[in-house]
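Hey, can you fold this one?
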Amino acid sequence: MTALFGIPIQAFLGQLLLGLVNGSFYAVLSLGLAVIFGLLNVINFAHGALYMLGAFVAWMGLQYLGLNYWVMLVVAPIVVGLFGILIERLLLRHLYKLDSLYGLLLTFGLTLVLEGVFRMIYGVSGRAYPTPALLQGGVNLGFMYLPVYRGWVVVASIVVCVATWLVIEKTRLGAILRAGIENPKLVEAFGLNVPLVVTLTFGFGIGLAGFAGVLAAPVLQVSPLMGSNLIIVVFAVVVIGGLGSIAGSIVTGLALGVIEGFTKVFWPEASNVAVFAIMVVVLLLRPAGLFGKEK
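Sure. Predicted structure:
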């Protein structure tokens, strides 16, 4: 079979792969947003800027310190996560008793500051980040040529997403995290430092954005604006999956990436609005999202 619905099978599967790669980024980024909102009730609009920061930390580590991709895949999320901890300690902590809109406005302002600083230093033109030697080239699958790095992005993203879900939903640590947020006074009575739990949870969610940024660096041009458009789509993914739903963010992120890829094949003009059209339909039929809990 050489064609599917009039589309060459190679082109069809190529777009499917592209959709899975994009969906992997959506899944990791929306997972970080879901962790932060689900456990802390904070709408973090700076997530896209912190994704950009992760890519830039990886690029700077290579350019200025000679640290390769594999080192920065570990170091960059930690650096970005520590920056997130500073944000929570110095800024967000003062807003927890206020409406969540204040946190949204604060993180939106932080986005503008971060993007402005990097535009001032590096300009708006993108910078190339080399694909690591181990992941260069591709594999001939017979029906298509699979770039090794894009396959790695999909596998790494799914592993991180599933591991995060297992820790939060299936382990004692995850139970402590959820209990500390839902009933902090009771948990403090058992000797748990709830403010520290909140800080570390926020830092972990931000670290996921940094991890996605490192994964994206060899695929995209590292640019101060690389997170600006992506974060809007990621927020749509979180809304469709259900605010605060860990599993919803993972499944919806991957699925919407694939749907977006298919749309580029069959109706290219609608590919940029497909996700938002689905969001409108879901909000009309199920306002809590596909995996969210109705209140």
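The chain is about 70% helix and 5% strand. Let me know if you want another pass with a different chain boundary.
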